[in-house]
């Protein structure tokens, strides 16, 4: 997780946003909120691009500067929850994972991110931990949402990715989307 949460966040948020926004042509999706949380610039500086290249394909690129060394004293948390469209509906947690950074690297990152990202980035190997201060880039990462179309469902979706230390958020994102059947 070379850039801590932001490297993973760029990949996961892009995957989730693309998946939710385009996965099933029978739904309209609105991005209600995409918010960065945590102290600005203390742990990471970054920029990224995100371009639609076809109905179900997107191209992403990014640059992340990691300002501090990250080790197992940091935790990575990924949460995805869904609620009904009715106002006031409670979110039901669909996915809630929290692991120490090095364990995250050896398990989640290795299984779901590394193989695909190593082709388009200089992100570290999954056995790298602690993660030294570094600069990371990803170029021409193409995501195809078509394989995920069977999973789309109506509702409000909340996705959170966080890097924490001692229970405090160091860096992360919160994304809320509304998925409705096309009129």
Automatic annotation (TrEMBL):
<dbReference type="Pfam" id="PF06477">
    <property type="entry name" value="DUF1091"/>
</dbReference>
<keyword id="KW-0732">Signal</keyword>
<dbReference type="InterPro" id="IPR010512">
    <property type="entry name" value="DUF1091"/>
</dbReference>
<feature type="signal peptide">
    <location>
        <begin position="1"/>
        <end position="23"/>
    </location>
</feature>
<protein>
    <submittedName>
        <fullName>Uncharacterized protein</fullName>
    </submittedName>
</protein>
């Amino acid at each position: 997780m070379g850039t801590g949460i932001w490297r993973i966040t760029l990949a996961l948020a892009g995957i989730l946003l693309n998946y939710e926004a385009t996965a099933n042509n029978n739904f309209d999706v609105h991005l209600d909120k995409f918010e960065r949380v945590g102290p600005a610039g203390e742990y990471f500086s970054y920029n990224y691009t995100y371009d639609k290249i076809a109905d179900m394909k997107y191209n992403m690129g990014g640059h992340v500067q990691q300002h501090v060394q990250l080790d197992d004293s940091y935790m990575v948390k990924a949460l995805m929850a869904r609620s009904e469209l009715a106002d006031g509906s409670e979110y039901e947690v669909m996915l809630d994972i929290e692991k120490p950074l090095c364990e995250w690297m050896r398990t989640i990152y290795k299984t779901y991110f590394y193989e695909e990202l190593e082709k388009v980035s200089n992100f570290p190997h999954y056995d790298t931990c602690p993660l030294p201060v570094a600069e990371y880039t990803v170029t021409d990462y193409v995501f195809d949402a078509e394989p995920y179309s069977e999973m789309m469902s109506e509702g409000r979706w909340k996705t959170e990715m966080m890097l924490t230390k001692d229970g405090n958020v160091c860096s992360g994102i919160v994304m809320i989307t509304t998925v409705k059947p096309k009129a």
